[in-house]
């Protein structure tokens, strides 16, 4: 996963103790796809990692549900905004459901940084892992 810090391997630790197909691996893969789409301002690709009926809470209101609403949210992200995934932890809830939380640092084109906490749940739907629930909240304890 691309990262701007000195030791990217130490920032993204799999603390789950699970195998290669762990919840961590699933969520890391989804977040890598999301990050690439987000950084390229590709709202269609960003929305594609979400389930058609996903629940979504970004930094700005309102609460959203559904891939089309999520696509609309990402179309409104200011150009040049980038995301950096700083940390990720995950657990398996069932063989087909993974849940976790991450620290994400959004950097706007003007250099303003917005550290956030992300809670995320993904489900394997017909052989494809998709984000079912995504909730971001400001992380006031992180200073960057």
Give a summary of the structure in a few sentences.
With 144 residues, the protein is α+β, with helices and mostly antiparallel strands.
Can you tell me the residue ranges where pLDDT is under 50 for at least 5 consecutive residues? 1-20
Secondary-structure-derived class:
alpha+beta
Percent in helix: 25-40%
The count of helical stretches stands at 4
**Major β-sheet annotation:** 6 strands, mixed
* Strand line-up in the sheet with most strands: 2-1-6-5-4-3
Instruction: Please give the CATH class.
Output: Alpha Beta
Span between N and C termini? 20 Å
Outline = globular
Mean pLDDT, all residues = 87
Counting DSSP E segments of at least 2 residues, the number of strands comes to: 6
Please characterize this protein's 3D structure.
Strand 5 and strand 6 form a beta hairpin. The chain has a single domain, classed as Roll (Nuclear Transport Factor 2, Chain: A), CATH 3.10.450.50. The protein has four helices and six strands; from the N terminus they run H-H-H-E-E-H-E-E-E-E. The protein is 25% helix and 40% strand. The chain is globular and about 40 Å long. By secondary structure, the chain is α+β, with helices and mostly antiparallel strands. The protein has a six-stranded mixed sheet with strand order 2-1-6-5-4-3.
């Amino acid at each position: 996963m691309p990262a701007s810090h000195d030791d990217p391997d130490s920032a993204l630790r799999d603390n789950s103790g699970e195998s290669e197909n762990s919840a961590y691996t699933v969520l890391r893969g989804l977040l890598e796809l999301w990050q690439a789409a987000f950084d390229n301002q590709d709202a269609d690709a960003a929305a594609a990692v979400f389930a058609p009926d996903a629940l979504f809470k970004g930094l700005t209101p309102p609460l959203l549900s559904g891939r089309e609403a999520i696509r609309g949210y990402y179309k409104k992200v200011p150009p040049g905004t980038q995301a950096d995934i700083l940390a990720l932890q995950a657990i398996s809830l069932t063989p087909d459901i993974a849940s976790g939380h991450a620290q994400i640092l959004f950097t706007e084109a003007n250099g303003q940084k917005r550290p956030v906490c992300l809670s995320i749940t993904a489900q394997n739907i017909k052989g494809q892992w998709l984000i079912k629930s995504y909730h971001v909240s400001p992380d006031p304890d992180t200073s960057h």
